[in-house]
Amino acid sequence: MKDLFGKAILDFQTHNAPEDLITETNISEADMMSVAYLFREYREMPKLEKKAMQLAKGRILDVGCGAGSHSLYLQKKGFDVTAVDISEKAIKTCQLRGLNDARIQNILDIENEKFDTILLLMNGTGIFGTLAETSKYLQKLKSLLAPNGQILIDSSDIIYMFDEDEDGGKWIPGEGYYGELTFTVSYKGETEMPFPWLYLDYNTLQNAAHANGLQCKLVSEGNHYDYLAKLF
């Protein structure tokens, strides 16, 4: 991995001529993303993220923290926050921004710790990669929950991205789950190796949660097929 996402984040933090990120999937064309968006304040966050911030409690784990905006907000509120990301440059940025506990770490490698709230935001199901891997991640997340703990996770039902036929049905690929995408990120003329990224519709997430001994509650829905769920 070239860690282009992390490079863009660190460039923005250090004023090193940041440019827009370019993201592309196997079912969508290239799209520009401003790195500045990853540094948003609470007032600029979508309503689902604001809701997650309001529900956060106790000791908090922010998984895939990126530039650390959610963690910083919660740390300023007085919470004990641990922020993790596999990107070395993203974690460097979090540290430069003042996060007390920011670690280069895969969620699967965390051991012997318990959290009251685990956050997976900005399509938190993405890190699962594929539907087949979802149980492995849910089991790990469950093992990290303190008694009465909660997992706050968001995603989208991307069924809207597929064409409709004359009867209103959707043209969906016959193999695999339609929310399994392949993502490619480009930045400053470099392109990352494609990687799997999972979008889960709520019913599929709920079924996966129940299969792994977790309750699942729909907390809030966004404006465009997106939702925030609570697993406990």
TrEMBL record:
Does this UniProt record's set of keywords contain Methyltransferase?
A: yes
**GO aspect biological process, one term:** methylation
Identify the keywords attached in UniProt to this record, alphabetized.
Methyltransferase, Transferase
Q: Name one Pfam family in it.
A: Methyltransf_31
Which molecular-function annotation in GO is an example for this chain? polyprenyldihydroxybenzoate methyltransferase activity
Keyword Transferase in the entry? The reply is: yes
Positions of the Methyltransferase domain = 58-157
Source organism, top-level taxon = Bacteria
Residues folding into a coiled coil are: none
Protein name listed in UniProt:
Methyltransferase domain-containing protein
Q: Which organism is it from?
A: Flavobacterium silvisoli
